[in-house]
What we know:
By secondary structure, the protein is of the alpha/beta class.
Amino acid sequence: MSELASDIQYLPGVGPKRAALIKKELDVHTMDDLIHFYPFRYLDRSSITPIVSVTPDLAYVQVQGRVVSRNLISIKHLSVIVEDGTGRMEMVFFKGVKWNFDRLAPGSVWLFFGKPQVYNDRINMVHPEVDAPQQDTSGKGTLTGVYPSTEKLKAGGVTGKTMCKLQRSALALCLPELRETLPDYILMKYGLPSLPWAIQNIHFPSDSHALAAASRRLKFEELFFLQLSLLKQKYVRSRASQGLVMKHVGPAFHACYNALPYALTGAQQRVIKEIRADVSCGSQMNRLLQGDVGSGKTMVAVLSCLIAIGNGYQACIMAPTEVLAQQHFANIQKYLAPTGVQCALLTGSTTQKERRPLLAGLADGSIQLVVGTHALIEEPVRYKALGLAVIDEQHRFGVSQRAALWQKGPLMRFDQRSGAWAPVSVSERPAIPLEGVQGVRTVRDQNVPPHILVMTATPIPRTLAMTFYGDLDLSVIDEMPPGRKPVQTMLIGTNKLPAMYRFMREEIARGRQVFVVYPMIFINEKMEDISNVEQGYEDILKAFPLEEGYKVAIVHGQQNNEQKLFNMKAFVDGRAHILVSTTVIEVGVDVPNASVMVIRSAQRFGLSQLHQLRGRVGRGAEKSYCILVKDPKTGKEAQQRLELMCATEDGFEIAEQDMKMRGPGDLEGTQQSGLPVDLHIASLARDGAMLEEARSCAQRVLNADPALTEPRNAVLLQELRKGKYDFKNYSNIS
Ligand code: ADP
Ligand code: MG
């Protein structure tokens, strides 16, 4: 058996018991896992700061000193005084008190790593990381790796030192066996060191340059394979899936276009061109359209649908909620008026009576465009020739829906003479098998999937988009229609509520409407928004009584469909002055007359969610406001996020900042699934430039050798087959 595949328990000094502990705590099972388990930082002997020069503005410092005294201030508060000959400093622990009390005996020397701060006019560090002092490394380099660890590991005797020892033995056994994963031509082109060298130096760097080179190589490898895997899927799919060819633009498109009350923005025009090129090229389109709230995605969707219709196909537009579907339908019908295109609405609450003619119209093709919810892809719905599906707000669209959608594509037959696919008419179904007929090439009718356009208003940093949507083509509307007014954003505390109510009354007196949004609260994974929003509703009713002519609507997750629709409609139609709700209104709802967005407990929302909510106002001609109300106990980080909201309206900037502040794993939209792949060393937040480099490298490799069959690319195929870079969750996006 190879060393790499063998169990860590056979390493000297491990054994079954420690092995079990390591497996459980670190998910490290084999030698191969172990040598790919990297330090997360390095102790640098040359960078120990004398206590006298520690100042609170330093981000992190490392001091080495002798314990002078340790004082248990309470069972949850340990204070340790340390000195290093230049000065004294206090180390404070509120966790692991007993463990630290025991080991930090007076007289012992330790390395402390942490963030210095000022407390009572003195500098201290709270919860510094504590390590054994650096021994003389006899010229072997001054950097020692620090591995992620847990209390249990330390208690089980697997200390930092043990880990270093284990890594040394594992490397000695495994490095000779470790195969290069990148071909020479790539290593040379990007100036990357070999894999064994990089692994050796990521654990035991000879100096900081070696560490940088090793880390660059390992990050590149990770990002490169991630992109290679994504792009390969895309290539395979685009070759495997026959696409419907839509050569014309058609009269409906022109009729709609010519009647538009405004000119398309440059970005809208560009995106429509991209879509046209996609649908006419013969392979299936899978395109993600990203555009901030209000950037005019609907128009692009409608014009795309009209292209499909102009080529004899049908199109559907699917919205995540019933309210949105209705709103889309109402808007779209206006655009369609000059075209003569037949359009219908199909949702969960379409009655049986309405349903029958509607389904018949879809099956015989007399309905050319249908707008709706998930009902559009449910079983009884059959299309004569669905050519394009537009999905608005992708994140609520899952794997099974995608599969269902593909099945809705038209039945096509390959026509030998013209060399193209042609629709099989409904009367001809079921398909006639041509197999076995003498002299005829075996051809079967097959469902050709419709082209797919996914639209999202959630701005995602480019690096994330390249990863989450790495297998889709990306179009971006990066330009707002002219005339949008900036939304003035304010941050207030709950003590300012009376003033805010006064302001709301003034706006209402001027004929405007107001959103008041409460966060959804989850308790035990169950949605418990109700108490919160209902309390809020009571408060608003008190401040805006019916007797004074105020009308308040309320929408939340626990209402049935009918209640929701009724309340939403009251607000959309302008009958209610105020809409109190949870985030159900987050996506898409268009009420141009609403000029104020109040967000309660704003600190509980993520940045992109706040951005989405704010996008609900500022859609009309009036000056609009977004009032973020924070609760008294808002933390520092949350405060920063809210301040950022006040500072900018640029969705992409907000998304970038959000990712920097919280790391990519915490971004909304990704939260449910986490990152789709495990990255060991690269970071989507910090390694954006390298990601671009890795992606273009992967692109070039696949352009030259799409199936990776060239001998020089054999190692790449081998590495991909290990499945490490398979995308866990990519289907949840389209
Ligand atoms: P979103 O991208 O958020 O779906 P919409 O498609 O709802 O945005 O468009 C927002 C508003 O902008 C709509 O009222 C729409 O009529 C208007 N709009 C779209 N395109 C343009 C344009 N090129 N010029 C002016 N207004 C536009
Ligand atoms: Mg929209």
